[in-house]
Amino acid sequence: MSLYRDTAVVLRVQKLGEADRIITLLTRRYGKVRAVAKGVRRTTSRFGARVEPFCHVDVQLYTGRTLDVITQVQTVDAFGVQIVEDYQRYTAACAVLETVDRLAAEEGEPVLRLYLLAVGALRALAGRDRDSSQVLDAFLLRAMSFAGWSPALTECARCGQSGPHAAFNVQAGGAVCTTCRPAGSVRPSALTLPLMEALLHGDWDTAEAAVAPVRREASGLVAAHLQWYMERQLRSLPLVERTVPELIRERASEAALVGAAEGDS
């Protein structure tokens, strides 16, 4: 019997028998691990609530013949408590976990950068300081960079000519110049690709200044690019609510009130 310990994010759970579950974890040192949590579906379980999706845990396991077995779990961050109370953040977090599960295809292969991206995205969603849609888009762009699928944003995806370029083509790999532009390319707003660049590199001042139509367009390009190169549709992405953040609505209301007051005067 070989014991080992690591920190991990719980990606998903599956029922096993009458009282057990198979827990899929993304660990810091060992990559994706599938392990059995015995008896966690019983009301007397010591750590059943600690191995739910979105949990960031310190976990001890021992190596089994087919699946490893969880023996101890301690909570590092209870992200799920804040996330599940808000449907928009919940659906965004589900998309984060599904993307991680798809990209970490090989079990036991270390993917430290992907682990850190997942923890950072869940922490941002739980903290509620930023728009959940933008947190998700930033995560997806960085996850694609990890996988080698990062879209070209500042140069032509085909010839490498420096931009900015007016067209974007998912199959070509991102922004394309007028010479290389294939049929079926889209022409996004002039502010959309700079927004995607800002999200990729963590320029939140620029990202948060973007208006709602530009945010929605960027989200659409990010999702299309990810699913094209992943060669499958993520089940959670269509459920993600792409709404204008409350702060933007409040500012718009304030501006309208100020404008009305100035008009009356």
TrEMBL record:
InterPro entries hit by this protein: ARFGAP/RecO, DNA_rep/recomb_RecO_N, NA-bd_OB-fold, RecO, RecO_C
SUPFAM superfamilies (alphabetical): ArfGap/RecO-like zinc finger, Nucleic acid-binding proteins
One Pfam family of this chain: RecO_N
Keywords: DNA damage, DNA recombination, DNA repair
Entry's family note: Belongs to the RecO family.
UniProt-listed HAMAP family: RecO
Name of protein: DNA repair protein RecO
Organism: Saccharopolyspora mangrovi
Lineage, top ranks: Bacteria, Bacillati, Actinomycetota, Actinomycetes, Pseudonocardiales
